Amino acid sequence: MPFTRRHLLGLEDVSSEELSYLLDTAQSFKEISEREIKKVPTLRGKTVVGMFYEASTRTRTSFEIAAKRMSADFVSLSASTSSVTKGETLLDTARNLDAMRPDALILRHASSGAPHFLAARLDCAVINAGDGAHEHPTQALLDLLTMRERKQKLAGLTVAIVGDVLHSRVARSNVFALKTLGANIRLVGPPTLLAPEMRAWGDVTTDLHEGVRDADVIMMLRIQLERQGKNFFPTVDEYSRYFCLTESAVARAKSDVMIMHPGPINRGVEIASDVADGPYSVILDQVTNGIAVRMAVLYLLTNQARTQTHSEGETQAELAAPEVEVVAPRLRRKVG
Amino acid sequence: MSQPVHIRGGTVIDPASGTQERRDVLVREGKIIAVSELIAEEALAGAKVIEAANHLVLPGLIDMHVHLREPGYEYRETVESGTRAAVAGGFTAMACMANTKPVNDSAAVTEYILERAQAAGLARVYPIGAVSKELKGEELAEIGEMRQAGIVAVSDDGMPIMNGGLMRRALEYSSMFGLPVIVHEEDRLIAGDGVMNEGAMSLRLGLKGVPAAAEEAMLARDLSLLERTGGRLHVAHASTAGSVDLIRRAKDRGLAVTAEAAPHHFTLTEAAVEGYNTRAKMNPPLRTLQDVEAIRHALADGTIDVIASDHAPHHRDEKEVEFDHALNGVVGLETTLALSLRLAEEAQIPLLRLIAAMSLNPARILGLPLGTLAPGAEADITVVDPSSRWTVQAARFQSKGRSTPFEGMELRGHAVLTMVAGRIVWRTGMGQSI
């Protein structure tokens, strides 16, 4: 089943067939980044706008490189340089950008649901690049791609997600997609960063060594250092005493365990340097895969007029064929 | 001398006397003259006849929890637009909360609100004074001065009183005037920056949650204080099964506590937030099905005394934003009656009990000489067509506020005539208004 959605807001309701299609598409784009000339004309003439209303280095750069390798024009703004500082609302800013007729708008925002709010009110495709504590779908997709490359299939894998699950959009997107694909999920952290309702997502434990036992994948989450002032844990030192992934913890997992982290990592806090840089770590592979995943997402969402399914045998020149744009009538906000 | 009015052939529901019978009602000079199976011919001479067959004739409904927004937030609602919404919704009287700008913490503001209500000439308005100066929760406002000017209760609604010492003194001091303290129960430190009910739904949506304990812990504190201080406590918008439990046990112990519930809390669950729907954002938040059922039971068995809308109009721009940033509150004056009739049917609450919760009970709690159709009483009357079907369309509201979680819902029953002191202030049914 191809991916025919207008927007990528989250993975919660995305089917396993759609996920596979997204990953297959991303896989086929990986090779472009290995070329001497890392650029294809596929999205020539497409415009992609990034609205990064929260600090972002990795995701923003990754989207920008992905767009540019596909020959899309990429413009981005951040909250500090945009008219947010002049008091303009998110919706007004987005409407103005939408009026410039971009093909996709990428939003990183501190409020959960902000991309859903915009998607219901704009013409262009909206891509969620992280909304509050809700979802970060492209991060989970690159995580899935990395897992699939190493483990072939995701069904039946045991994935331990460790750390601040409560506030993590990376955790939510991964949980939703991994459940859809049939993986077993374990959630590990202090009780303050878990919730009783998480038992519906997987096994929940506060014991790191228990949580990673026989795991195929250990996914560490970044600990926000500012949480310590809010009584989620007393100090970063005490947190790391219980939840820092060290070699002795890794030894409890399967012998071919993969260690993942969405970055940026706090060395010595949630993950020991030896582990982050060690043989099981795929942290940098994740980053590499992020480009391919975002190329795939941009490609699929800005080419919704296409009907043919994409296959690996297709040449990039074919992908770049000009097409007729179908412009939907502008949605008018209902005036009450 | 105004023309007498003869409301003929309706079913009178008067909780004060336990009447639920077909009766004629005669009104003259702003008073109810007679309620009878057959009113003598000579008494009816020259009376204007209102045909009320197949209609309910109710004591004028009273909404004891309304935000009229004036002074200070006239762009959201004015006393005029709010009272127009009230009479359109079948309410003849309301109590309005103190969180205006300036706050109603002085006789001057109380008098201003009463003047505006007088000028509007629609429903009766009873201001509620602030407990604390500027709703800051620090020092008592001049409750006595405001009492002189006409307040009927005190409340810092919207700003929970975190200071237990102040709460104690407020209960003690207000008892001197016989005024109830109306409380918005929420421990703000437990609530944190939560924006919806805490549970499976908030977890999924990645929204910060307000646990039921935030409401219940504060309520437990205030019930403990009540035991020692005397005074009267009225719990605004009870929203959780745990709160219902606490209120029930306090009443069993004989404490002077009363409570109200809002239609959204007995009709909707947190599921209405799906899709980050800011029209389902209010405080206290929509809770779970278990809570909704507990509130319904509490209304059925009388543990909760009153239905009140917590009508809280906002400007469109204040709702058309990210969920985190949207203001709390929905309008309710024009949907409460139909939602309450729906509740009565679904939860099998006798109409006498339901109507008491919207007239007699709030009148008693606030000490108003209203809420009954007894001869001699003020002629505040609501005539309802209980079977007419209509669809909620906020765009057609009289209120300036348009944010309702019930948009598009099909309801049954609406006020066809609203009378205040013998004067018809709202009339629909034949396509005309007033």
Helices and strands in order:
The complex is a heterodimer of chains A (336) and B (434).
Chain A: H1 16-30, E1 47-52, H2 58-69, E2 73-78, H3 90-99, E3 104-109, H4 114-119, E4 125-131, H5 137-151, E5 158-162, H6 169-181, E6 184-188, E7 203-205, H7 208-212, E8 217-220, H8 236-243, H9 247-250, E9 258-260, H10 273-276, H11 283-302, H12 316-319
Parallel strand pairs in A: 1-2, 1-3, 3-4, 5-6, 5-8, 6-7, 8-9
Helix pairs in contact in A: 1-5, 1-11, 2-11, 5-6, 5-11
Chain B: E1 5-14, E2 19-28, E3 31-36, E4 48-51, E5 56-59, E6 61-66, H1 79-88, E7 91-96, H2 107-120, E8 124-127, H3 143-149, E9 154-155, H4 164-175, E10 180-183, H5 188-191, E11 196-197, H6 200-205, E12 209-210, H7 212-229, E13 232-235, H8 241-252, E14 257-261, H9 263-267, H10 289-301, E15 306-307, H11 316-319, H12 336-346, H13 351-356, H14 360-366, E16 381-391, E17 410-420, E18 423-427
Parallel strand pairs in B: 1-4, 1-5, 6-7, 7-8, 9-10, 10-13, 11-12, 13-14, 14-15
Antiparallel strand pairs in B: 1-2, 2-3, 5-16, 16-17, 17-18
Helix pairs in contact in B: 1-2, 2-3, 4-7, 7-8, 8-10
